[in-house]
Amino acid sequence: MVLAESIGKYRVGRTIGEGAFAKVRLAVDAETGGCVAVKVIDRSTVLRNNLMYQVKREIGAMRLLNHPNIVKIHEV
């Protein structure tokens, strides 16, 4: 995997998904070496379209889920 940039402790690579207000990038946790997905939220899109409530609701819902087939939130 080609890693082009860093976001915090994550070395991010290619885009693997895209939604209404964010892109999901494949990344490596520099501390553990583990492969993760990093959701990069487009702040200008969120603010321009008044989506802050939707973003917060999605984060809250994801924090409640605990299942081996659902991605886990590590940090926000």
Automatic annotation (TrEMBL):
One of its GO terms (molecular function) is ATP binding. It holds the Pfam family Pkinase. One of its GO terms (biological process) is signal transduction. Residues 10-76 form the Protein kinase domain. Its EC number is 2.7.11.1. Gene3D superfamilies: Phosphorylase Kinase, domain 1. The keyword ATP-binding applies. InterPro entries: Kinase-like_dom_sf, Prot_kinase_dom, Protein_kinase_ATP_BS. It catalyses: L-threonyl-[protein] + ATP = O-phospho-L-threonyl-[protein] + ADP + H(+); L-seryl-[protein] + ATP = O-phospho-L-seryl-[protein] + ADP + H(+). Keywords: ATP-binding, Kinase, Nucleotide-binding, Serine/threonine-protein kinase, Transferase. ATP binds at K39. This is non-specific serine/threonine protein kinase.
